[in-house]
Amino acid sequence: MDHLLACMKIIGDDTIQRTQLAHRMALVEAFQIKEGMCVLEIGCGQGDTTVALAEAVGKSGKVVALDIASPHYGAPITLGEASDTIKQSPLGARIDFHYETDFLVFDTVERFDAIILSHCSWYFSNPQQLLAYFQKMSSMTNRLCFAEWDVDYTERNQRSHFCAVQILALSSAFFGGDGNIQNVFHKAQIQEMLAQAGFKVQQPILIDATYLQDGEWEIDYANELYEQLQQAPMVIQTLATSYYHLMNRDEANRQSLNSFVIIATQ
After folding, report:
1. Cα distances (angstroms) measured from residue 121 to each of 12, 126, 251
2. What is the pLDDT of residues 184-217, one digit of tens each?
3. DSSP code of 149?
C-alpha cells in the first residue's frame, strides 16, 4: 500500500487516504483485474480507485479514467491536483485521465477488457441516464465491474448511515444541487438494468466497508441539511424527521454501509 500512497497527493496525515485505499484495493481484487488488461474507469474522481486499477494492470496494462466533473472540482484537493500528482508518479504512464468528459459522448473505437463503475452510480440524475451508460458499455466491453454502497445493511450500527443517505437523497430531490447522492439504487435495480442492457449478471459480492469514514461524513452532512428539509412539503418533512431521529438515536459505534460488487458479462 505504501508505494501506492506515495503516488497520491495527500495533505497532512495519511490515515484517511490509507483507509480509503484499502477499500479500493479490496474492490479491485473483487473485480478480478489482471495484468495487461486495458480498463476504462467511469467516475474516477480524484483517482482513489484509479491507482489500485493501475497497480493491478501492471506496466503492460492501461487505465483510461473519465469523470464528468471539472479538474477544478473538489476540496481540499481538486481532481486536477490529485491527477497531476498521480501522472507524475511511477503509475502515471499507465493512466489517461479525461475530466469534463461525459461517457455518452466519449468518442473511441477502443474495446476494453473491463469497464469499471465504482461508487459513482448515486451521482446519476435519473435511472434512464445510468441505463444509457450500461447500453453504451455493452458495445465496448464483455466485462462490466460495478460497485456501490449496499442499502441492505446487516448491522444495527449501519442504520445511521442508511438514514443519512435517505435524507441526502431527499434534499437533492427537492432542492437540487450537485450533491453526491442524487438517486439511491438498490442492487436489484442495478441487476435489472444490466440485464436490460444485454449483460449476464453474476450474484453480488459483499465487501466489508464498515471501517470507512464515509458513514460519519454523510451523517454529519445530513444533520446540516435537516433544517432545510423543513421547507419541503409536509409529507417530506415527516419522512425526513423520522430518518433524522433514527439516524441520531445511536451516537456511538456508527459504521458505514457495506459495498456490493456485481460482475456483468456478455
Report:
1. 30, 10, 28
2. 999 999 999 999 999 999 999 999 999 999 999 9
3. E
